Amino acid sequence: MWGRFPNLLAGFQPAPLRTVHNPHVPRHNKIVPRTVHSVCALDCPDACSLLIDVDDSGRGSRLRGDPAHPVTQGFLCAKVARYLEHQYSPDRLLHPLRRIGAKGEGRFARISWDDALNEIATRLQSASAESGPESILPYSYAGTMGILQGSGIDRRFFHSLGASRLDRTICSTAGTVGMTDALGYRYAVEPEQFRNAKLILAWGANIMGTNVHLWPFIVEARRNGAKFYTIDPFQNRTGKLSDRHFAIHPGSDAALALAMMHVIIREGLEDKDYVEKYTLGFSELKERVLAWTPDRASQLTGLSAEDIVALAREYATTHPSAIRLNYGLQRSERGAMSVRSIALLPALTGAWRHRGGGVQLSTSYAFQLNAAAVEMPELQLQSPLGREARIVNMSQLGDALTTLNDPPVKALVVYNSNPAAIAPDQNAIRRGLQREDLFTVVLEQVQTDTADFADIVLPVTTFLEHTDLYRSYGHYYIQMARPALAPPGEARSNQDIFRDLALRMGLHNPCLQTTDDDLIRAALSSGHPNLNGITLESLEENHFVRLNIPAPFLPFAEGGFGTPSGKCEFHAETLDYTPPIESRHGDPSLKASFPLELISPKGDDNMNSTMASRPENMALHGTVTLHPADAARRGINTNDAVRLFNDRGTCNLRATIANTIAEGVVCARSTPWTKLARDGSGINMLTSQRLTDKGGGPAFYSCLVQVEKTS
Ligand SMILES: Nc1nc2c(c(=O)[nH]1)N[C@H]1C(S)=C(S)[C@@H](COP(=O)(O)OP(=O)(O)OC[C@H]3O[C@@H](n4cnc5c(=O)[nH]c(N)nc54)[C@H](O)[C@@H]3O)O[C@H]1N2
Ligand SMILES: Nc1nc2c(c(=O)[nH]1)N[C@H]1C(S)=C(S)[C@@H](COP(=O)(O)OP(=O)(O)OC[C@H]3O[C@@H](n4cnc5c(=O)[nH]c(N)nc54)[C@H](O)[C@@H]3O)O[C@H]1N2
Ligand code: SF4
Ligand SMILES: [Mo]
User: Is residue 49 a contact partner of residue 65, using CB atoms and an 8 Å limit?
Assistant: First the structure.
């Protein structure tokens, strides 16, 4: 197994280090060769601690994982092992640009920073004056996970304008609500504890592809006899390495969890002591799940009743048992219920008692930074709006740009995101981005699909070029990074751009000029015990610092749930499952026209649309996997050109036929660059703006399509 990771083994050899602390690299200073710490800022649970060798010309020559970080363990994923190619790519944007072609065409001319920022200031001011400040919409997500570059001066700036607020739902909100409903405090099993587990379920989690630093702990557990199962409609690399793969139908996970509860309770396999002491509502739960027989769940999930019974028994009787959920699970119309019902299982079996027992969706809750001090939402009250601004859901950008009124969106400022590729219902988004009366600014490293629609494009730094503070959603270490490399051309950080823009708009509140270091201090100022003793200085010195939580961290070993009762509250009355509208058991008329369930999970070697433009990734993104029976019915063979379509759009791909996918499901990887794709069609031409059951997230993976051969 270790043979699969040549760079992983290399990482365990101690590297000779000459670390320079606080390595600010003013461009004109004499530069000496050195090794500098950094942090991978990509939107990945692992938040790796990096070491970068910088040669005497100031150029980064080698990037590797820090062997001292307990989770990074000295290795990087294949994407970021090659990050210096992105860093030094000829495709990096070097200068501000003004559009000279049609929107979307991608023709631009170089302009100066002065011209660019003055024009943006003038256009934002006129949008605000003519249509009200809420006609300005920021649009950002997690192109960088850095706290400063994604929720720093930018937030203060838009609050000072009275701009619309963005509800940042595109990834995780359904799961967040599901976990909160189940546990109150969204704590999770720590990755290091997975080595102690005896049964590990990867439930809608592609660990090898999206969270590879958990894998060594799973390998260790398996060496000690643990079983590893995957529950996923698609048997990806992780599924292929599992002891058993359960090919569940998309969006039906809550039915499986309810049936597992049924079996566990019927057979008396629950941990009676744990249930008695630390849970609330067991007798109602017992009643509720009576109806959730394995046969009923079998119909809905596609798994056999025998498998469901066996899985429930094994789960309840094997300790410690760890469930790794990831966000793939919650991108369905029933996403919040899926997560909630699964997250109740360890309370029933008492799994939380054990080292390596429980569930992990995200560790991010533990970081408890002082978001209010950093973002200063109170600035809205002093803005021209004078009150809290309206909230626009980023997962419905198409509607926001085409149908929203009072006021309509007149100015869109995009950073850390590429909505013209990654947001659902692309045809609606494109209609919006093409509006002549919409002024669009895009802050980017490379000329993305979204940047093609911009009026002004501003070149920005990468995480190797700016200061930032990092949480993680896959471990419990907080980290900070200083610039390791000088920015190319005229690229500037988001922070610097928003500071400058504020001045040009006549916003002279000093809080819009706060330094990076002071913002980090503000972020650490929450007073929450998890951050006790953690300061800018300690981060500067140690690069990564474990949160002030017990080791081992067993958050719910003795109850302590974040609920009114302090117990895990089952709330059986709201625990239920109905199939997604867009699914095989959903709306019959939709299913008649579009009978196949499309999922579009992550590619292993790209990060959403970041680095998806690499030719080998575009080749992978150009394919769709069909089950042999579905292909045969349509006369489709491997490599045939096929058209995926529904009432929202079309996407042209090539067929791959494999029984690694459940029948009735098709799988195409997210998220290609549409301008590089065949006929300019991306996978999100097909996905809908329908929201998840709770949390207002996108139901990317509840998506009915038809597939036909085109050649
Ligand atoms: N290589 C790589 N790593 C990434 C990313 C990337 O793009 N590429 N993206 C990052 C981001 S933004 C995120 S949010 C995380 C996401 O990390 P993951 O959640 O692990 O990734 P996904 O591919 O979204 O989904 C995981 C698995 O869920 C399966 N799945 C889909 N629908 C269902 C369902 O209804 N039920 C079940 N049980 N399984 C289902 C998919 O087939 C997929 O194999 O990964 C991060 N890491
Ligand atoms: N069909 C389908 N669609 C999906 C998903 C799916 O699984 N299927 N996954 C969804 C999920 S989970 C997520 S999180 C979203 C991700 O969507 P996004 O958050 O938009 O992520 P990326 O596509 O990686 O685009 C991020 C952009 O930010 C830029 N960037 C990086 N660092 C900086 C910086 O410091 N400053 C500025 N200004 N820009 C920077 C990068 O160059 C990149 O173009 O996609 C969603 N879309
Ligand atoms: S993308 Fe994830 S696994 Fe890869 S280097 Fe970054 S944090 Fe580590
Ligand atoms: Mo995400």
Answer: yes
Ligand nearest to the CA of 692: 1
Alpha helices in 567-686 (DSSP H): 588-593, 615-621, 628-633
Q: CA-to-CA distance for 411 and 438, rounded, in angstroms?
A: 6
How far away, in angstroms, is 506 Cα from ligand 2 center?
Answer: 31
Same fold, 97-171+367-532 and 174-361+553-570: no
Ligand 2 centroid – CA 140 distance (Å): 9
What HEC string does 40-77 produce? Answer: CCCCCCCCCEEEEEECCCCCEEEEEECCCCCCCCCCCC
pLDDT of residue 332: 98
Q: Is 494 in the pocket of ligand 2 (CB under 6 A)?
A: yes
Backbone torsions φ then ψ of 19, nearest 5 degrees: -90, 130
Counting atoms of ligand 1 from 1, which one is nearest the CA of 79? 1
Q: Could you say which of 3.40.50.620, 2.40.40.20, 3.40.50.2000, 3.40.50.150 is the CATH number of the domain covering 588-709?
A: 2.40.40.20
CA-to-CA distance for 335 and 176, rounded, in angstroms? Answer: 10
Q: Where are the domains of the chain?
A: 97-171+367-532, 174-361+553-570, 588-709
User: Residue 277's pLDDT is what?
Assistant: 98
**Cis status of the peptide bond prior to 23, with omega within 30 of 0:** no
49, 63, 79, 84: which to mutate for ligand 3, most atoms within 8 A of CB? Answer: 79
Among 37, 49, 62, 80, residue to substitute to test ligand 3 (most atoms within 8 Å of Cβ): 80
Residue nearest to atom 20 of ligand 2 (CA): 417
Residue 419 Cα to ligand 2 middle (Å): 8
pLDDT along the chain (711 residues), means of 10: 33 35 46 87 98 96 97 97 96 98 97 98 98 98 98 98 98 98 98 98 98 98 98 98 98 98 98 98 98 98 98 98 97 98 98 98 98 98 98 98 98 98 98 98 98 98 98 98 98 98 98 98 98 98 98 98 98 98 98 98 96 90 96 98 97 97 97 90 96 98 98 75
Tell me, using a 6 A CB cutoff, whether residue 333 lines ligand 1: no
Contact 507, 157 (CB under 8 A): yes
Judged by its nearest atom, the ligand closest to the C-alpha of residue 50 is: 3
Which is the closest atom of ligand 1 to the Cα of 608? 7
Distance 391 CA to ligand 4 centre (A): 20
Task: Give this prediction's pTM.
Answer: 0.95
pLDDT of residue 33: 77
| CATH level 3 topology of 97-171+367-532 | Rossmann fold (3.40.50)
Q: In whole angstroms, what is the distance from residue 668 CA to residue 279 CA?
A: 41
Atom 34 of ligand 2: nearest residue by CA position: 416
The topology (CATH level 3) of 174-361+553-570 is Dimethylsulfoxide Reductase; domain 2 (3.40.228)
